[in-house]
Amino acid sequence: MIVTDKGLVAAGVVELVTNHLDDAGIPYATYDGVMPNPPIKVVDECVGAYRSGRCDSIVIVGGGSSIDTAKCAGVLATNGGEIASYFGSGNVKERMPFTIAIPTTYGTGSEVTPFAVITDEQNFKAAVRGDEIIPDVGLLDSDLAVQLPLPVGAATGMDALTHAIESYVANTSNALADASALQAIRMISENIRQAASSDHNHDATEKMLVASTLAGVAFSQTLLGNVHAMSHPVSGHYGVAHGVANAVLLPRIMDFNLIACPGRFAEIAAALGEDVADLSETEAADASVDAVEALNEELGIPETLSEAGAEADGIPVMAEDAMKSINIQLNPRKTTLDDVVALYEESF
Question: How far is the CA of 215 from the CAs of 167, 208, 273, 286, 331, in angstroms?
């Protein structure tokens, strides 16, 4: 089964993949009903298509929403039941069908991660976590991502940058994850502008795809922090693109976290290309925040969550949802409900 969305079908991107199946005489069914911030009903539709098509494997062509939808449909295909019963960690017992994930954005890293995020009936973004949902194969092909519109390339690239930065400063950071995260930060800093602003720069696009995968490798080991804990409720309640919510929150939460690990943020500044040679550790750490703010501005990211489509009236509910995330516990600076409320208020 091919799992994708209608936009990619209309753009001819999916055909780049299915042409090879046609040439090889391999039959396939297509599910193209994936939606942003996918709700449970999309997972149910997807596994229904898998079963009715009598499929035995999955090829995903799309961004994070397509990959997460397909992962969850794969869980149901081999484990049965309802996806809500698999929310959390360690609840998936049987591996999903053989799966090839071909990302068409350079943000999610989901082609190598043990996570899938689905929006439940209460607009809460719940995660399924387990090694059983890591795709068997991830294919990075710039042909499928080189023509991303600037807003999509900017948002997904900033999502990957957020993955790398949050992994690098998480309480669970380790040497192997650090190496992947820092390299991802370097590659994103050097290539995101060129990739997002062009529809023909295959070199920059390929490097962004690799950087996104490296960031996925990093946070698969460490998980994340306040940015993701707080961005998920923004997307779940108001439909704001995940990468946009991350990008708006990222510099504010970096600034909040500086006091906890200034040395780490100084290293992030250097990886972002800032000249920190003559700066103190504190000054260099501050430079990392300035660099991300400047990058957001260059890429046309909305300055506030209200500009992105969220509403400040929702802060109390979003803050409560954010505090349910394990990522709050892994953030380098201890964070209370009042802190989350204040960070949301600052971001509006």
Answer: 8, 10, 18, 22, 17
